[in-house]
Amino acid sequence: MILSTKKLRKEFPSGETSLVILDDISFNLEEGKSLAITGPSGSGKSTLLSLLAGLDTATSGDIILDGINLNNLNEEERAVIRKDKVGFVFQSFELLPSLTALENVMLPSELKSEEDPEKKGEYFLNRVGLSDRKGHYPNQLSGGEQQRVAIARAFACSAKILFADEPTGNLDPKNGKLISDLLFEVNSETDNALVVVTHDQELASKCDKKIQLKLGRIVD
Amino acid sequence: MLANLSLKLFVRELRSGYLTSMLLSLVLAITIVSGISLFTDRLEKALSSETKEFLGGDLKFESNENAIKDSLKELNLNSSNFLEMAVFASMVISEEEMQLSSIKAVDKSYPLVGEVELKNESGTYKTRNNPPPGTLWLDERLKNLLFLEYGDVLYLGDAEFTFTATIVYEPDRGSTNFAFAPKTIMNIEDLGKTNIIQPGSRVEYNYLFTGSETEIGQIRTLLEKNKKKGDEIESLGEDSSSLGRATDRSENFFLLGGLIAVLLSACTVGISSQRFARRHISYVAILKTLGMQLNQIRSLYLLLFLYITLLTLSLGLSLGWFLQSNFISLMDSYFPTELPTPGFYPLYVTCLTVLICQFGFIFPHISKLLDISPMRVLRSDISFNQNILPMFFMGLMAFFLLLYIYTNQITLSLIIFSGVIVFSFIGIGFIYLMLGRSKLGLGAQDPVNLALSELRRRKLSNSFQIFAFTVAIGLSLITFSASKNLLGSWQNSIPEDSPNNFAINITKEDKDLMKPFLSEKGVEIKTFFPVANAKILRKDGQAEIDRNFNITWVEDLPDQNVVSAGNWFTEDEINGLSISSGISERYNLEIGEQIIIQMEDGAIETFIQSIRTVNWDNFSPNFFLIGHPSLFEKQTSTFITSFFIPKKDQKVASDLMREFRTVSIFSVEELIKQVREIINQVTKALNSILLLTCLSSIFLAFSALQDGFDQRRHQSAILRTLGATSGLVRTSSLIEFSILGLLSGILGSLMAHTGVYFIESKVFEVTPSFYPEIWVMGPIIGIGVVSGLCFYLVNGLMKQSPRDLLKLQT
Ligand SMILES: Nc1ncnc2c1ncn2[C@@H]1O[C@H](COP(=O)(O)OP(=O)(O)OP(=O)(O)O)[C@@H](O)[C@H]1O
Ligand SMILES: [Mg+2]
């Protein structure tokens, strides 16, 4: 079991009271499997994803990632978990504008103090088909290309589990398909588990498992 | 609709806190500028009326004869605009004592300006009249020395008088030197009866005039025409009293502080408006896509900045008023009258400053913001057009205008301006060289690597940050050194144990007895200066210098005298004469010039051997002419000396007076106390300006940092998402900013060093001093303040979860 949650609940303070965004979320994900999270806008998908990935803390309930309960960890310890076990792809790419494509992909290896970040970076950049653009800055790349760089960066993390929040949301259908194919292709080459938040039914259907959120709860 | 929208925008901006540093620095600048200009305006007005009182009128004519009186008749002067007075020294004799006094015989127009404050048995009172014939007013000191009661009989020459009042305050104190005998005021009508003034007596006639500028001009022309050798015309503005000079210099300092605060705030405003514009890009783009016309958007922002201006002006002006009234209350006890209310000039300068800041540092950013294409809504990476040249140009123009307004000198402004530009280029070039080329990758393995690579990567924005920090540190250090220099020079002029008593008219016999007499009582006398009267004649016969000087002869250069040309006496160079630089300039006497010194016991042929600058502000005997004793062996003289009697031993002074009856002894304790108090109060004002300037530096540093941190927010969020610990981000930022701080500190010290040198030598016109502490303070302040502020900002970032940070971005 790479990821499991139990009775997860997330509230945001709102004035005197608090808003319940997620409630009673429990599920399991086997190692190397993929999970799609779908649901209408505002149902709490991104919130859930950031909890699962240790970017934010839950109000109550447990998240066990690779055997570690994230809710028992502080921010520094969660950072180490993110570095060692987790990879990310965002809807809005989130590349560093001051770094070239290659440098962006090298970043996770640098953070892990790995031997040769450049070699690994070039390998994954090549894998997403952008080796000829390695010296370009994000603002010199199209949205689809930027997302491919982001995917290369996510895989360069050598993570056990990869989180993607609407990775195709900012792209046209053609590019969207390209990205989702790429995501699953590269994923199949590694034994990563994959968690994707998406509105895209086709992408969701490629996953081993699906959960649907509505008003912060899982519906079947 | 627009007004409503802009008001909403204004309130939102205020709430968001993004405008805080801009607002605070504007308010601070307005406070400092209005406070200082209000204060100096009032001070100047007060001082000119003060110096008018000090001089006794608008114009003063000094002569050894009263011959000018006849020529004055043609002017038909109104007696209330004209005063005649005779000043001389004579013995005042009571039933049992006698004392040398400096006597002022005045006519019925006395006092021409201000009021005399007197005291008699029924208390103090003020008058605008001269003493009635047959009466005398005396210094308190003289009253005590002569053991007098009000109504006692006194003798002056052949005439008998009644002592009616003691003098508490007389307006025309400039007419006699403090280092002289205690004062007596009499009616000039009584002068004849005394038979004191005989042909050849030393008497000085003073004629004082008041009137409009044209009247004074007429009088002046007449006086110039009838002026004889040795006569002097003095008018307002030629005042060189120490109070005048001290306030002049502190005024210079205040203006410097004001200018520096304004420049600092201008930089802050520039940085904050750039940040403001960046933050508003999407807003403007959206308004444009929603179909708002450019004119409307422009009005929206103009209104917004109008609100900002009104808010900061009203806050700043009220605080400025508060500041100046505090300064005034620190010092107003030293002014005899209520300080005049300020004119409109301060308000004008303040508003002009704000206007220039707006045009130079805010509007260029806003107009760039308005240029943004609505396409920006679609592509978030569309930014401003990259042409920053016009903006830079506007900023520089404004900078120059501000310089000009505050210095009022075109050359000076040009020099400072080009200095700053050259300096920035050197600084930025230096940074580029220092940081070198960047390597591949962000270097996120460890904090040091990350910090260094960040420094290299952000060369341009780092350069601007370093520039801002450098300006902040450099200008603060300049203000610091200027205040230190000013205070130092004042404090030096009155050391703790500076002499508080003078003794004059000491005979040779008294001199030999006085020293042991005093040293037995624990009071040491350093030197007795022989004093004699001398005239100088040029040997080549042309243009005789017909003036009496006090001359002394000593072997060692007196304290606080500095030889500025020629040499002081050495073993084989003892035949010359040392003159003060003032005399040298006034009578055009140069080194090596052959002269004859004419004295009571014969003439001495000699030459000008050295020229000294003399600190006239200090409280020890100072001389225009000093010779070597070997040349004056045959001359008779009296002696003058000064010494320090501790407060607890004041009895020593009266013992001394009793023992040496012919010696005139007087205390300057009160005067010293008063000068010390003034210095203390001015110091407080000075320090508060220094503090406010430093505060504006901190605002500048903070807004420069904040600007950098906007760009860092995103990066740190991504790094942390990818698993960088906050420790890594924090440490690397601290290292990075400590390096920036260190660099800026060094550059700031360099800037302060050159700036202080320039200001002292060219503006204050003093010998520039070296301030080694600048070189220590600069880097320490740089590292301390910059990394401190950075720590504060990074901590703010670390408190937010990476998810919130990313959300803020998008
Ligand atoms: N920091 C926050 N404070 C308060 N409410 C929040 C916060 N973050 C998210 N929410 C609320 O939580 C709910 C879920 O947000 P979330 O971003 O997870 O939705 P989502 O399912 O990802 O929607 P979308 O498909 O539009 O991206 C929303 O109603 C949102 O307003
Ligand atoms: Mg979402």
Give the topology, please.
The complex is a heterodimer of chains A (220) and B (810).
Chain A: E1 3-14, E2 17-29, E3 34-38, H1 45-52, E4 60-65, E5 68-69, H2 75-85, E6 86-89, H3 101-111, H4 117-127, H5 143-155, E7 161-165, H6 173-189, E8 193-197, H7 201-205, E9 209-214, E10 217-219
Parallel strand pairs in A: 3-8, 3-9, 6-7, 7-8
Antiparallel strand pairs in A: 1-2, 1-4, 4-5, 9-10
Chain B: H1 2-16, H2 20-55, E1 59-63, H3 68-72, E2 82-93, E3 98-106, E4 116-120, E5 123-127, E6 135-139, H4 140-145, E7 153-156, E8 159-169, E9 183-187, H5 191-194, E10 203-209, H6 213-226, E11 232-235, H7 242-289, H8 294-331, H9 345-370, H10 389-407, H11 410-435, H12 447-457, H13 459-493, E12 501-506, H14 508-520, E13 529-538, E14 545-553, E15 561-566, E16 577-580, H15 581-586, E17 594-599, E18 602-614, E19 625-627, E20 638-643, H16 651-659, E21 664-667, H17 669-721, H18 726-763, H19 772-799, H20 802-809
Parallel strand pairs in B: 3-9, 6-8, 14-19, 16-18
Antiparallel strand pairs in B: 1-10, 1-11, 2-3, 2-7, 2-10, 4-5, 4-8, 6-9, 7-8, 12-20, 12-21, 13-14, 13-17, 13-20, 15-18, 16-19, 17-18
Entry summary:
The complex is a heterodimer of chains A (220) and B (810). Chain A is an alpha/beta fold and 220 residues long.
**Beginning-to-end CA distance, first to last residue of chain A:** 22 Å
Strand content of chain B: 15-25%
Total individual domains of chain A: 1
Output mean pLDDT of chain B.
82
Largest sheet of chain A: 6 strands, mixed
- Named at the architecture level, the CATH assignment of chain A is 3-Layer(aba) Sandwich
**Oligomer classification:** heterodimer
Binned, the helix content of chain A reads 25-40%
CATH-defined fold name of chain A: Rossmann fold
Unreliable stretches of chain A (pLDDT < 50, length at least 5) are: none
What is the β-strand count of chain B?
21
